[in-house]
Amino acid sequence: MSSNFRFPILQWICTVCFMVITTASWGQEYGKNVVEELSNLGFENIRYTENEYERIFSIENIAVRIQEKGISKVIETIQERLPNDKQCKIIVTNLDIPEFILTQSTTNKKDTTTWQKWDASYELGDNWNKIKKEKCTNSSRFKVDLLIYPQLSYQNMDITKIYQVMFTLNPAVEVSFWPGMKLTGQIIVPLYVDTQGYAAYSPIYKKVRPGFLTLSQRFRLPFNIKAKAVVGMFNNDQHGIDFEVFRPFKDERFSLEARAGYTGWGYWDGFSCKYNGEYQWTWSVGGSFYWPRYDVQFSLKAEQYLMGEKGIRFDMVRHFKYATVGFYAMKAEKAKSNGGFRIQVALPPYKQKRHKYIPRISTSRNMGIIYNAGNERIYYKQYRAEASDNIMEKNRYNPIYIENKLSN
Q1: How far apart are CA 213 and CA 240, in angstroms?
Q2: Tens of pLDDT along 27-48?
Q3: What is the per-residue pLDDT for 157?
């Protein structure tokens, strides 16, 4: 009697264990299929893990220029190929450093199996720790990009001409050897330089010469602090070191940012470098507010510029899908007020993936111009530390903007 009673219980336990193991195995197999599909689509640095409550992916969008379109494709792929039985999370990375997280959520509290939307946040919690040691599929390390950066410069300093123009194509090799690191080497190739007339461009600008030569490292620090350090040759005839940090508040519409640089003056005459060996500090510190309804960002900063003058700067920037438009105003000691606008436009091709380790040749993600309405030529001088730095790229990993675009 006792023996007959134990057998059904033992059989039931074995059946339950088999079902749990089989279900977990199926879940992992589903996840592997999604990872393989995302890799085939050109996404990089893909990881996957799951437990009985959730599925977590980490992914880097290299395949699609417009960030929200790339993330939409990731979400579509996941939802088409995974059962809708667990909450899903996606950590979006940059050079394999986590930037923000998307969390599947529901508007129906009684039916948690019906997912309605995705919430985005800088706050990762312990999710990155859960996935960072998983196998990385389609790693971006040691893969080379050859990006062509077009640059248009213009000025109106001669009353006999409407504008003096300079147009260059600046190919740059970019490669990463470890998480967060990027090496950039750029050559400036002038196509047209107007050197005629008063205050025209220098004949030196007609020569092929080096552009950005930089080594950068990105960090993800505690308390959601993001940081970047760069050393090398910058634009605006500067070389040295540059460090910047970004810290969002709990209400992620508000944030603090700071930047400091120790740079010296120098320029390239062809491939001969001229410099004076003198260095100076520049810095910027301030805060910003992001208005989600219109995707507009306001920022106010105190700054010190290359001539040593201190001042304040106000920016208002609106982000669209294929462009970013900004207006700025500045006032510094020793200098009159100045201002203008900036425009950054996404460049085609909008979809492109790498073929294993074959160098990928393409245009840069975007191109921009700055209009200096006050025609100030001495004061308010600044520099960019990397070829890819601009107002559109800074918004690429903004979770508020991404969430807005995904819900529209």
Answers
A1: 11
A2: 567 788 999 999 999 999 999 9
A3: 73
Q: What is the pLDDT of residues 239-287, one digit of tens each?
A: 999 999 999 999 999 999 999 999 999 999 999 999 998 999 999 999 9
CB 170 within 8 A of CB 186: yes
**Residue 200 burial (10 A CB sphere; 0-12, 13-18, 19+):** middle
Which of 32, 48, 67, 40 is closest to 138 using CA atoms?
Answer: 40
The pLDDT value given to residue 113: 57
| The Cα angle at residue 395 between residues 310 and 340, in degrees rounded to 5 | 45
> CA dihedral defined by 262, 268, 274, 279, rounded to 10 degrees?
-10
d(CA 55, CA 51): 7
- Which residue's structure tokens are 């893909």? 46
Q: How much is the mean pLDDT over the chain?
A: 91
- Please tell me the distance from the alpha carbon of residue 97 to that of residue 218, in angstroms, as a whole number: 7
For tokens 């792929």, what's the residue?
Answer: 77
Report how far residue 106's alpha carbon sits from residue 176's, in angstroms, rounded to the nearest whole number: 38
